[in-house]
Amino acid sequence: MASKQMLHMNQGQEETSYARNSSAQSVEQNKMKPLIEAAILDLCSRSSTMLPTRMVIADLGCSSGPNALTLVSIAVQAIHSHYLQFVQPPPEVWVLLNDLPHNDFNTVVQSLVTLHKGNDPVVVTGVAPGLFYERLFTSGSLHLVCSSNSLHWLSKAPGVLTSNKIPAYDIDEHARLERLPIVFEAYEQQFRKDFTLFLKLRAKEQVPGGRMVISLPGRRSDQLASELCHLRETLARILRIMVIEGVIDKAKFESFYVPMHGPSDEDLRVIIQEEGSFFIGEMRVHDPRSGVDNALMVPSWFAIMMRAVFEPISVQHFGDVMDEFMACTEQRWSQPGSLEEEVAGNPLVMLVVSLTKVVLVEIYIGCLT
Fold first, then answer.
1. Is the Cβ–Cβ distance between 132 and 123 less than 8 Å?
2. pLDDT recorded at residue 24
3. Which one, out of 49, 84, 149, 277, has a CA that is 20 to 30 A from the CA of 350?
4. pTM summary value
């Protein structure tokens, strides 16, 4: 699928790489720590007589850089601490890292050595390239699945838009607002389809009672769709200026679709309940900017963070325009108060959900004779 080719972050360790511009994502991962630790405690405590001797942990959408091992490291440390408390030998742990095939796995593999230090617990590692809207692992093999800042990426742009050539963006603001309900509905339906499939696939791959802890950007359920302002809308506003300035072609802009959608907390809850493979243990909604160093929130930081995330997909569609993108972004936010206004007007929130795979119990009723 096309998504496998273009949806990856900037690779390497250069100034514009994702590895050097993902501090905000790191803050979000740390907020998942209590839920991951609680999930490990649940998995380890389920049996009152014997602790598990083997556990398999997977991170879906690990990307690269310093954040690639954060979630699995939290889980491994929680396992070690729990078994130490009961003076029991820890289980053998298998850690699997997933992302799209074009992810910078060279950097990821080099960092895996940190999980092998010492033999307590024994940690075996591996990578699993592939789209998480496909099967990735063997049936009934995973104990814990984690994913941070990944599930808002769709398997593809909504077909109802691309096949009918309905622009997701428009130079004319009146036309854009008029079309917004159609565009929003298309993205919402694509997310519903993709996330439902994601749940079905992970349910097949997890052990009975397996756990998932996921986070993704979204919106609050009381926020109207007409007020929606995701990262892709921020990107579109910058690209619109570049069209007006003649940097990119208008027709190219109107045929650009970012396969990204942030659901509301209620949308997410309904999809999980309707799919039926998992029940929600806990759902948290918080501002992703809380915990981020305010000193970082300057135009250049926001601009380079946007570039680290969106450069591959933008270059594939528009060509090499990222220097102009950076200049336009910084110029847009260079006016006093403009960046603060952008941040305050962005209703993006983070949704964090802890899930447990439903254990089906078959009841046989015998016939009385």
1. no
2. 60
3. 277
4. 0.87
